[in-house]
């Protein structure tokens, strides 16, 4: 079966600092038309950051779209500061780790990549395992308005927070379950 939709028209609705929104008119495989609201977002990165004492670094921060704080892995978007690198995603991961946790990693390993919300957004995130953490000597400034509380959690603590509903962020859930999978294989 042919699933491909043909974009007939694109209306640019909003261009912002983090997202752009467009409305597409598409022709469906059966010849009918429909509309699609699309959120365009820069590529993103996230870190399963493990300390030498086998704890995961997570941060609490306010998230305006849900009007609540969340407990999340360190993450951020790939931006122009990363474009001169041969691997912009890895460069963004190094930068975000510094900005948010004040650590640098001796080892950075790409684990997987995924689309965060395929129903309306093109945001793609690379998930990294970062280990061999040590404090940075030169702290990069945090993003304007970014207030974070950084804590460390064991795998059992992270799973308990997940199962109790205190962790609701998809990338963080994926990182915890990936960590659990790595432990079960080892």
Automatic annotation (TrEMBL):
One Pfam family recorded for the sequence: NUDIX
Cofactor(s) the record lists: Mg(2+)
Matching SUPFAM superfamilies: Nudix (SSF55811)
Molecular function (Gene Ontology), one example: hydrolase activity
Keyword Transmembrane helix part of the UniProt annotation: no
Entry-linked CDD domains: NUDIX_ADPRase_Nudt5_UGPPase_Nudt14
Gene3D superfamilies assigned to the protein according to its UniProt record, in alphabetical order: Nucleoside Triphosphate Pyrophosphohydrolase
Record has Glycosyltransferase as a keyword: no
InterPro entries on file: NUDIX_hydrolase-like_dom_sf, NUDIX_hydrolase_dom
Stated name of the protein: ADP-ribose pyrophosphatase
């Amino acid at each position: 079966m042919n699933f491909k939709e043909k974009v007939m028209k694109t209306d640019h609705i909003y261009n912002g600092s983090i997202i752009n929104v467009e409305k597409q008119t598409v022709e469906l495989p059966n010849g009918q038309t429909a509309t699609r609201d699309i959120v365009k977002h820069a590529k993103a990165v996230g870190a399963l950051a493990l300390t030498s004492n086998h704890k995961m670094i997570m941060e609490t921060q306010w998230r305006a779209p849900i009007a609540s704080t969340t407990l999340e892995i360190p993450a951020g978007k790939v931006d122009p500061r990363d474009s001169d690198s041969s691997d912009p995603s890895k460069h963004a991961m190094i930068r975000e780790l510094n900005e948010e946790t004040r650590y640098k990693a001796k080892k950075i390993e790409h684990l997987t990549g995924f689309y965060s919300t395929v129903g309306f957004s093109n945001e793609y995130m690379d998930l990294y395992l970062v280990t061999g953490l040590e404090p940075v000597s030169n702290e990069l400034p945090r993003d304007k308005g970014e207030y974070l509380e950084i804590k460390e959690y064991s795998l059992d603590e992270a799973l308990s927070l997940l199962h109790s509903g205190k962790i609701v962020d998809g990338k963080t859930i994926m990182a915890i379950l990936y960590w659990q999978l790595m432990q079960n294989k080892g």
